[in-house]
Amino acid sequence: MRKMTAQTILNHSFRIAWKDLTELFRNRLGLVLLIVMPLFMMVMVGFIYPSNGTISDLQVGVVNEDTGFNGTFMPSQGFLIGLNQINNQTHMLIMSNVSSIADLTDQVQRGQLEGGIVIPSNFSQSIMSGQQGTIIIVSDESNPQISATIQGALKGVFGAMSTQLAINNVKPLNATNSLAVVQPYSIQTQGVVSGNPSYFDFIAPGIMAMTVMMSVMTGLPVAISQEKEIGTMDGMMVAPVNRLSILLGKTIAQTARGLIQGVIILALAIGIFGVAIQGSILLVFALLLLGVFSFVGLGIVVTSFTKDQETAQMLMMTLMFPMMFLGGVFFPIQQMPWYMQTIAQFLPLTYASNALRKVMVLGAGVPQIANELIILIAFGVVMIAIALPVFRKMMTR
Amino acid sequence: MDNIIIDVISKMANESIIEVNHLTKTFKKFTAVDDISFDVKKGEIFGLLGPNGAGKSTTLRMLSTLSRPTKGTATIGGYDTVKHDMEVRKLIGIVSEKMIIYNRLTAKENLWFFGSLFNIPKDTLNKRIDDLLELVQLTKWKNAQVGTFSTGMRQRMNVIRALLNMPQVLFLDEPTLGLDPQSSVEIRDFIKKLNQESGTTVIITTHMMVDADLLCDRIAIVDHGKIIALDTSTNLKKIISGADTMIIKLEIANLTPNLIESIKALKCADAVTQENSTRLHIIVHGEEAFDNIIDAVREKNGKITSMENLQPSLEDVFLHITGHEVRDSADQKIPMQHGPKQFGASPRRVR
Which has the closest alpha carbon to A116: A49, A65, A179? Predict the structure, then answer.
């Protein structure tokens, strides 16, 4: 009795997709938001996220408690002169003199200073008596990001100063290369591809993957529950249309919407933020589609369990947030504690954004991202296998 | 030979197009539809009348394959609504209180979309869309977005949308709810015309007595998920007149709650409702009913200004059978501002 060829199912789903997209394109405000949303995300995340190269002019207090050695303050004065010389080149710090450690602590607490350098009372004495001179770095723990930056910057400066001092000390030994004696190893960094990728190169692929995948996961439940709520769903359900067509049609429309957004992000990334795509653009789109595929099942499951639009939206937000931050879109997964990394390993977004990043930034091809591809396909298949029976049950309540 | 043909024709005339057997729907612990059975003949206008929450819409949803029965079966045109839902869907059209149209699509796009879901050939569909738009005089607005239409125009769209597949059975779920009296009349006339001209069987749910009385060949009165009476409007009213029952409209100048209580206490009074500060509506039985009521009023020093013996309405029938009023019947008290107009009068609001 149920003669429903694959062609009719497809035909109906295209009709439904056409209907949904026509509605979308007639919604002016919605269209504007479609473009503005990814733009905001790029601009905000791209400019706010701190990178070491951009940090300068940190307010730092200097406390000199050195009591000298036999009336000479040579070591601590030399240290301060050296520090000033280096800082004049990098402009990393703005230094001011502070009378005591207590005063320094007070000023950090007030937020007037972001950190401090303390030269202890026995500094000159230690150095002159052949021991190590200790410098204390005071940091503001309430701002871990700045604190880490100051620590890193100052350690770098002190390291360079130590090296310089050591070179001077070994000169009398008449070595051909004093630097090689003091620092036998030199380090050079070289990327896989040429050029100097910025933070945008890191987030652009992630945001693309996220937007496209989320459009299916959030768009599908919202689109379906909205039609259920206003009653138009009954119009489709009462026609001789396979339930699969409704689902497929809605998915096609949402995927198209997501891909449009993806293209907008890509255009913004290339045009405004100077992101270069190293790999194949076709592979980029193939990956985006695969990302959609891996999320369709999840979207259907959520759809089946939500009765009204409000619940659908809330549920989506709840699911979306951890994914956004755990999926390695904005922050590298390697930064996270082990248990969060474990969770990240179960999110398809992690693999999609990883693979996309490899293709876009590193110019990887299919063989290099084979693992991600397999995981995404497997995730999609498993979720759809779970989702379809659930959906069928929901539709005939 | 002739006899056989006549036989076939008469059989067809009496043929049931819908058969409902012990249909039941339970939501968790709540029984919305409780073991109902009825048949609907081909070409009939069949009404399900009852208060909100009586189970009318749930019944309609089960018949139109939108919901699965918990127990029992229903067939439409011989097809089971669960096992052969796709076949059933080809035979039916549905108009519900929630309008099934997309505001951002034009009139024509809406009809084209829903029509294409029925696999109607392109040319046939195009012609049918034009015909239907002409029928409800919306041709002029066919390329305007439906969101700009007035409520009456949208309801007309909603009705012709359900007719795209030329259904044998048309389900109407509270089709006049939320419409102004004029649009209600238009919709009623249209349904009647459709039924007479194309022989479409119509199932209508309503809590409006007027709709049921004016439209339906037979009415099933539904309360708490059960059919408590099923007959023609005339026969239903005979329940009252035939059962030695009368409806009295009683005007008392100095009506008090105390007085109403003493009338309610009378053995002959089946139902007493207060209509305004001076008027009572009383259903009574027995030969001495009039005398008894007058005595009761006199005893409390009530001044009777008028007393009238009314023709029973469906409302009275409902009251008589269930002992309570049709709830939410306030909508029908909206005063008629204009006289009834022809269906398809020019739209009043197009933005």
Answer: A65
The total number of residues written for chain B in this structure: 351
Produce one character per residue of A331-362: b if its CB has 16 or more CB atoms within 10 Å, e if not: eebeebeeeeeeebeebbbbbbbbbbbbbbbb
In angstroms, the CA A149 to CA A90 distance is 14
**Residues A316 and A303: beta-carbon distance below 8 Å:** no
- Domains, chain B: 2-231 (3.40.50.300), 237-333 (3.30.70.100)
Q: Do A239 and B65 touch (CB under 8 A)?
A: no
In a domain, A327, yes or no: yes
Question: Vertex B205, ends B200 and B209: CA angle to 5°?
Answer: 110
CB count in 10 Å sphere of residue A199: 18
Interface residues on A facing B, Cβ-Cβ cutoff 8 A: 1-2, 4, 8, 12, 15, 18-19, 22-23, 26-27, 230-232, 234-241, 396-397
Which residues of chain A are within 8 Å of residue B165 when distances are taken between CB atoms?
239
Q: What chain B residue is nearest to A2 in terms of C-alpha separation?
A: B86
Q: Do B66 and A238 touch (CB under 8 A)?
A: yes
Q: Answer yes or no: do A239 and B86 touch at CB < 8 A.
A: no
Question: Domain range spanning residue A302?
Answer: 6-50+198-395
CB contact under 8 A, A238 and B94: yes
* Helical H segments across chain B, by residue range: 2-14, 56-63, 85-91, 107-116, 122-135, 151-162, 181-198, 209-215, 233-242, 257-264, 289-299, 314-322
Non-local (6+) Cβ contacts of B151 within 8 A are B178, B179, B180, B183
Q: pLDDT in tens for each of the 351 residues of chain B?
A: 556 665 555 555 568 899 999 999 998 888 899 999 999 999 999 999 988 888 999 999 999 999 999 999 999 999 999 999 999 999 999 998 889 999 999 999 999 999 999 989 999 999 999 999 998 899 999 999 999 999 889 989 999 999 999 999 999 998 888 788 888 888 889 999 999 998 999 999 988 888 888 889 999 999 889 998 899 888 888 777 766 777 888 888 888 888 888 888 888 888 888 888 888 888 887 778 888 888 888 888 888 888 888 777 888 888 878 776 654 433 333 333 343 334 443 444 443
Residue contact B109–A22, C-beta within 8 A:
yes
Evaluate whether residue A191 is within a structural domain.
Answer: no
Q: Give the CATH number for residue A90.
A: 3.40.190
Find, among B207, B299, B310, the residue nearest to B250 by Cα: B310
User: Residue B165 gets which letter from DSSP?
Assistant: T
Write down the ipTM of this complex: 0.75
Q: Which residues in chain A are closer than 8 Å to B90, comparing Cβ atoms? A: 240
CB contact under 8 A, A240 and B89: yes
The reply to whether A41 and A58 lie within a common domain is: no
The CA distance from B105 to the nearest CA of chain A, in Å, is 7
CA torsion, points B66, B71, B77, B82, in degrees to nearest 10? 50
> Closest-CA residue in chain B for A231?
B98
Strands B279-285 and B269-274: antiparallel
C-alpha to C-alpha distances, B224 to A310, B4, B32, B39, B326, nearest whole angstrom? 31, 45, 7, 20, 12
pTM of the full structure = 0.73
Which is nearest to B59 in space by CA: B94, B93, B34, B30?
A: B34
Residue of chain B whose alpha carbon sits nearest to that of A8: B119
Distance CA A203, CA B45 (A): 64
A396 interaction partners in chain B (CB closer than 8 Å): 67-68
Q: Is residue A76 included in any domain, yes or no?
A: yes
Min distance A32 CA to chain B CA atoms (Å): 17
Name the region of A380 (left: φ>0; alpha: ψ -120 to 50; beta: rest): alpha
